[in-house]
Design brief:
The structure is a homodimer of 345-residue chains. With 345 residues, the first copy, chain A, is of the alpha/beta class. Chain A has nine helices and ten strands. Chain A has an eight-stranded mixed beta sheet, sandwiched between helices. Strand 1 (30-40) of chain A pairs antiparallel with strand 1 (30-40) of chain B, so a sheet runs across the interface.
Amino acid sequence: MRWLLMSAVLCAVALPALAQTTSAEDPGPLTIAKQGSFFVGGRDVKSDTLSTLPAYAASGTVTVDQMYVHFQVPAGPAAVPIVLIHGCCLTGKTWETTPDGRMGWDEYFVRKGRPVYVIDQAWRGRSAADISAINAVKAGKATPDQLPTVFAAGHEGAWAIFRFGQTYPQVMPGLRFPIASAGEFWKQMVPDFLANLPTPNPTVPALSELVQRIGGGVLMSHSQSGIYPFQTAALSRAGIAGIVAVEPGACPLPTDDLTPYKDLPILVLFGDYVDQFPRWAPRLANCRAFVAAANAAGGRAEVLVLPDIGIHGNTHMLMQDDNNLQIAELLLAWIGKNVTAFPKP
Amino acid sequence: MRWLLMSAVLCAVALPALAQTTSAEDPGPLTIAKQGSFFVGGRDVKSDTLSTLPAYAASGTVTVDQMYVHFQVPAGPAAVPIVLIHGCCLTGKTWETTPDGRMGWDEYFVRKGRPVYVIDQAWRGRSAADISAINAVKAGKATPDQLPTVFAAGHEGAWAIFRFGQTYPQVMPGLRFPIASAGEFWKQMVPDFLANLPTPNPTVPALSELVQRIGGGVLMSHSQSGIYPFQTAALSRAGIAGIVAVEPGACPLPTDDLTPYKDLPILVLFGDYVDQFPRWAPRLANCRAFVAAANAAGGRAEVLVLPDIGIHGNTHMLMQDDNNLQIAELLLAWIGKNVTAFPKP
């Protein structure tokens, strides 16, 4: 009901803006007030197996667990920032230019007046992994079972996970992912050391530090990182202005302590075809159960499934689908309506 | 002699610009015409050891060897772009905000009118490595000696490599690196699979494809990547407008085929303390020998060692030293004088 109303509002508000932004190849100049990058978190580790090469010392100290952050703050009035947190086997590239060369959410949100912070999860992308255990095995100081757990998602297996189709290379009807550019999408995928890390992932306390450092922000997750903003709120509500969980791999359980989510604007967003995929249908069901329980405990949570408001064909990678800016506009409208103030420090 | 003259010119030209840019905390807004990211290169690899986890298939195809590229094109007249190529154990973060929070060369060059392309070398940062061999050993299908060669540079060993001091934690007199923020610098370092890759590194053909795709550019390397622009020119001169080798780990040999460098503007830049470090003194000497030989063969190469023009205290990480924008201005002046046109396609 709430979404039917919002949908009507968006038809009036968002579409002219979209026409302006996406009809032309060149969206026009963008004025940035400030941009840059930094790290949050990090832990020094001493090791005797940093290297097996004579040119680099085997013994020494490295820093791991830090989280890389790249940011842009647009010129114009202050607005609550958005922190973009990528999912499994990917990096912050997720939110940038799409595989077929269209504008990503990172830039679109900035163009719409929001400071944007894009992270690389700990141990991935520009955030260093600890490879000491690999060299310990190579040097005969440890056994192969002590190798770190690291995986790479193959194209064929990822196909159904991303809901491009039921089996590779079959394609879902009405698919909005730019499948002709799938080859460019595969290049975004990186090895994932996730299973090697403690719970919560070091990314979680780093997110908490980040939102406090920047004076508050909306945590926007995707897929495997879906649980992180909730875990961050459980650590501390400081700096968390809202949570947008885009196709979360998991929501908190209805039986969890739900007090961290009281009065917190939370949106869980899913695309199309969910019920046709056994990996995803239960996840949506679990998130619905969480949302109901959170609201019963004084929460402000909602679930949006795009086909329910007449938007069809979206995959798990909806920030890269051909209507990605229409969805970005939906999210901005939700944030604009529900996240009305900077959180108290 | 040439540099004495240029130095005098720069005192008149560069210093007012620097005062404008660095005296204030806030350099003012920046207008971008276009920005985004993409990959160049990449190769599909089939593997049966992508994963040891039941949730992800062991068999499938992954894409590796691609090079991540992030770019910004400023508003204003067209100018020859600069491609920034980081060195050992680092990523494109090298060129961004310094460890103590000052502006990096990536943004400074854009503010001075240059399109800038920042890459992550193949198998590093946002450019995926192939981890199949790790899982092959973990699964008992290969022996530990077949593990990939990967190393992490420890703080203590890196100290002298970066010429912060002769031995950790001793500091060189007059050091310009923001050593109080060394902890933030260590967070930039990532594991390096370099020794595992063929020669030339897959980054080299990717650089060749990149400069052709963007209509030409100056290749600016650092340290371990120092030889890459020369190897790229040896593949093809197409798109290469000039080479700036910042503290290169290696220059071509004087006995190499030097025809790829004929008429090509080349600058080799070194900082301070070089003669006091046995790792670096021979490298500078070798580059001097290359420059002499290249010029004898019709080249337009030069070496600049900063203390020779009265600039002291610069380390191997001179793009992060406290006078980093002064050095950026020197390089822009050199490019402006020597790279006067887009290269022919």
